[in-house]
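Proteins fold reproducibly. Look at a concrete instance:
___
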Amino acid sequence: MIVSTLHSAGRRLIDNLVGHEVQLPAALLARFPELREARFRRGGLPPLVGGWCLGAGSVAGITLWRTIWLDSRAPLEPELLLHEIRHVHQFGASPLFPLAYAWESLRRGYRHNRFEADARSFAARRLLEAGSSPLSPS
């Protein structure tokens, strides 16, 4: 009983820190195979820290290298997932990407950060190629 309680408490603590793994629906992966390039997690500290940096409670998604964290309430929308997968590509393109991203955000702000603009453009383009349209303007 005590071991089970401790194990359960430890699992909740870990989920609160790093979130829990998410498997994307097969139909979504078939439509957008590039989503297979990342690991997806829901919850945890990264979306909260991202939100705090932007003056919000959380962000819908945040990418660190090949892992995409989604807010616990964020829907598995292709536009969001494709935006975040572009950040996976950006992380892979240069080991200095985190510094370049931070510098760009300090200089231009989040919305005008060229990496964010590129991610919005990529998501919109992929949605159009798949016969969909973006949910929000880029």
